[in-house]
Amino acid sequence: MSGYWDLLLVDNVFHPCGVYLTSCAKNLSWIDYSTTLTFRRTRALRAINLPISTEPNMNMINYNHKSFKFRLTNTAGEMLESALGTVLQKLLPYWTEGKLKVRMNIKDFHRRAIYAFGSMSPMLDFALPQAANTFTIDYSCPKPAALGNDFQELVDDPSSKGTIIVSFGHYVKWKYATTEILQSISNVFINMTDYRIVWQYDGDKKRVANKAHVKLAAWLPLPALLKHPKTVLFINHVGIKSLHEAVCFAVPVVAIPMFGDQYRNAALIRQRRLGIFLEKTKMNEFSFRSAIEAILHQPTYKKNMKTMSAMTKDKIIDDLEKGKFWIDFYLRHPKAATHMKLKGVDFCNFTYFDIDLVVALSALFFLLVEVLQKCCANQ
């Protein structure tokens, strides 16, 4: 590898080449940037973690840290995720050594990073610990472009009570959706003639409701549609980008997660009462209609979303400026990285959780009890 970098910014999921560079280059400094909720693993490896019973995991459907049942099931889920992560971390170095001739150490990548940046607003996310060198940099709200005439005429229709947007990103292929799911959605939309529905749909249009008040399109100008004052509901998979856009423009959601961190985001929506969490495996015409009607007829969801939107935007400093400051700070004071590094990073789990001290104190306690028993017996 030729060339020289003062600092490397690496997406820890979508930029494996950057992780590879940190393993094969000498004297290289980098920032570990989490554009997904893998930031929770980063925090744990940098000694900034919650007890596993209360750490929000990727597959939860609700969050209640005071419930014993939740803490028990959450611990089981967290242990399963940790076991899988450990296996991958153990196997990946051998795979990269065989393919790339360099052993890629994921733990070292997270631990040795100058900074670790997350990407979800701490106002929106569950309350989680941060540190001087490990914190979140929230996305800026997107700036909407002007709507095209076809969209503008639809959403500005004076006879409409509001616009409902349906978008599951480009990972969800509607052509593979079951007839039952498409029929359930269509049956609900067909009867909602008082509303205008904009559906990001790339499947066969003959399989779904294709009425005048329902617009089907393979691509949607989401920021512009969400910002429109008549938009009343956003039905989506609550990926981190979709969730962020919904909060930016204060539009309540019906969250139907598909996989990965989307379940955690949906649980967050449920806890904050920013919308309705609808599980895809339990979705039918009745549950889909009920979720939509709950949002449209209960102003609490809109009110909560407006409050959340205002809180995430109310900052002492813009997040991009905050990130820029800390990067410049490191370039001015490179030795500060050592000072900001938490000492727990150097410990193994046995030491970090004070298991060695518990064992030593327990042994001392039992030894003291034994001595006292013998003294009492001799008397």
UniProtKB/TrEMBL annotation:
GO molecular function terms noted in the UniProt entry: glucuronosyltransferase activity
UniProt keyword list: Glycoprotein, Glycosyltransferase, Membrane, Signal, Transferase, Transmembrane, Transmembrane helix
CDD domains for this protein: GT1_Gtf-like
SUPFAM superfamilies (UniProt xref): UDP-Glycosyltransferase/glycogen phosphorylase
Transmembrane residue ranges: 350-372
E.C. no: 2.4.1.17
Name of protein: glucuronosyltransferase
Species of origin: Trichuris trichiura (Whipworm)
Taxonomic placement: Eukaryota, Metazoa, Ecdysozoa, Nematoda, Enoplea
